[in-house]
Amino acid sequence: MAYKNLSQEISVKSAADYSAVGSNYKFYKVNSSGNLTIATASTDAVLGVLQNQPVTNEGARVAPCASGGTSKVVLSATVTTGDMVGLAADGTGTASAAGGYDVGVAVVGAASGELATVQLQNLTLKA
């Protein structure tokens, strides 16, 4: 069962309406206007994992990757406990791949479409 244990959470204004079910527990980045938007590439410099479901211009609560806390993360592919986690094109977590960022390690793995528990870390480019 996935869980979270956050050591830090920050608030950033949401660039869009993320109130729909399934918008939280994905990876997000900050756009050029300083607002939170969903990560769309494995090489995006993500801020962290969205914890709530804000509407446009509302405060989005984010667990920063650099915090070292654990967060629930929606997966787009099966990730096994102990695997490094990377980014998929829809902001979900996936198995880490060469040329993309490692954003954490799976403490509790899960199948595609399910929630894993990920120990967040500073972004590391996988060679």
Record keyword descriptors for this entry.
mainly beta, Virus Head Decoration Protein, Chain: A, five-stranded antiparallel β-sheet, 0% helix
Describe this structure in words.
- This protein is mostly beta strands and 127 residues long.
- It has no helices and ten strands.
- It has strands at residues 10-13, 27-30, 36-38, 48-50, 59-64, 70-74, 84-87, 93-95, 101-108, 115-125.
- The protein has one domain (1-127): Virus Head Decoration Protein, Chain: A.
- A hairpin with a 5-residue loop joins strand 7 (84-87) and strand 8 (93-95).
- A five-stranded antiparallel sheet has the order 1-5-4-2-3, with no helix packed on it.
Average pLDDT score: 94
The quaternary structure here is single chain
Query: Uncertain segments of ≥5 residues (pLDDT<50)?
Result: none
The total beta strand count reads 10
- Give the CATH level 1 class: Mainly Beta
Q: How many H/I helical runs?
A: 0
| CATH third-level topology | Virus Head Decoration Protein, Chain: A
Silhouette? globular
Question: Radius of gyration in whole Å, from Cα?
Answer: 13 Å
Termini separation (Å)?
31 Å
Work out the helicity level. under 10%
User: Order of strands across the biggest sheet?
Assistant: 1-5-4-2-3
Derived from helix and strand composition plus strand pairing, the structural class reads mainly beta
Q: What order do the SSEs take from the amino end to the carboxyl end, as H and E?
A: EEEEEEEEEE
CATH architectural arrangement: Beta Barrel
**Overall number of structural domains:** 1
Strand content: 35-45%
Largest sheet: 5 strands, antiparallel
